[in-house]
Specification:
Distance between the termini: 50 Å
Strand content: under 5%
Order of helices and strands: HHHHHHHHH
Shape: elongated
Radius of gyration: 27 Å
Number of strands: 0
Number of helices: 9
Largest sheet: none
Amino acid sequence: MHEFRGMLYKSMEDPHLDLAELENIVRLLLELEPETDPVWHYLNIQNGRIHGLFEKCTVDHEVRMEILQNKRHEKVLSDSKWRQLQQESNKSLEVDSAIGDSFQDDQLSSTFMAEEADSLRATYIRRLSAVLIQHVPAFWRLALSVFSGKFAKAAAGNALADSEMNAKSGANKTDDKGAEAKYTNHSLDEVASMVCATVSVFDTKVQNTFRDFEECNILRPFMGDTIKEIAKACQTLEGKDSSPTAGIVSAIF
């Protein structure tokens, strides 16, 4: 029995698990008298997955930045060796000219590296925004379905169309309250706090990255694109049933 219960909990980790399958798993677990709340366990798994996706974006970004830093370091060493060879092989007048040219080359190289670094930062913010847009509203809607009773109805009558659901909403109001009590002992406010904490992680990562942008690149096209991505994320959170409250957007910038 213990192994079967463990298998059911493990099946909740499937990222492709649909609502009807989740409902059936929760019902089985409740019949087995689980030690932990199955629905809350699943919500924590989903929230943890979002955090994991944020962290993957961060790790990937750090790796790319490290590769760029190594490239920059190698170029500095290469340029230094080249200048040394020039100084040893050229006459005094030619050396002065070479030094002037190399200084200009260094400036161009530094500007290019700064642009490339900021381009990577813009890509990082775009990926973070994509994670938030794709997963946070879906997570919140799942929570709403659990605490409104739609979660229970999704499995019991998965073939019902939206129109049929709306027609029966008044008749099932009492059942909805019962479903809420049955499927979890936690509250929607607890999930709202969870979502706010997740958005706060996004906010912190984005703001820290913005502070790293080079001032010389502030008007580059990718800066405007980055701001548009963040605006899109905010608009998504303001959508119907997309986050606990539209006020959550005020936390971003």
